[in-house]
Design a protein that fits this description.
Elements lengths: L8 E5 L5 H8 L3 E6 L4 E2 L2 E2 L3 E4 L15 E4 L4 H6 L4 H12 L4 H6 L1 H17 L5 E5 L4 H4 L4 E3 L2 E5 L45 H4 L11 H11 L3 H11 L4
Parallel strand pairs: 1-2, 1-6, 2-5, 6-7
Antiparallel strand pairs: 3-4, 7-9, 8-9
Helix pairs in contact: 1-9
Amino acid sequence: MKANARKPLVIDLFAGLGGWAKGFLAEGYDAIGFDIEQHVYGEHCYPGSLVIQDVLTLHGSQFKDAAIIVASPPCQAYSYMAMPWTLAKAKAAEIRADETGQALADLNRLFDACFRIQREACEAAGHHIPLVVENVRGAIPWVGRSRWNFGSFHLWGDIPALMPDTKIMKSIGHANKRDGHSHTPHLTNPDEHIKLGGSWFHGYRQGQGPRNHGSKSLKRKSASAMIAKIPTPLSRHIAATFKPHE
């Protein structure tokens, strides 16, 4: 896949509503997203070119012309096991007890696919293509420490040395992460959301919120997609940092 001759190309894996794409488009990139479904909720939809395809079936060689790859693999399993519930703790213990390592591999398969795709893209291109993967704090015990976090948005991969101040979260009304925690703009501590019950999981005990709707309900999917959307200041900063010099 080639970008417009005048524009760099960003490949957006697990594209969702296009929080990554929005920032990259604003910085002058072409954006091609990949997801297993198209997310359209009223006026909210993916802002770039979207390909409906399972990321696990992609081979990175087709992205040899990309300037950068970004990804936000689904985080529900990580988020669930970060919760202080008996069943969540039992699930985590079950994975840790699996001496074959298969349970851990299954848990991380989407996360690991991002780095496989990057390796394949770099080999095909003959040079390094940066990758930035976003996920939740709950992923850390399973994939390793994140290199930086923007509030509750944790990042792995090729993270720039200079990143925006986390305090900017105060001005981002939609930065409400899906880590099983609510991250509202008034928080001053980036990790304060760990103590809070968020919209995604409220219904597990209270019988309210998105969990009270079917797992495939439009209302729940819409809420989840909006909560997961990458804040524009973060995506624009990453885009500007990696934009090739003309």
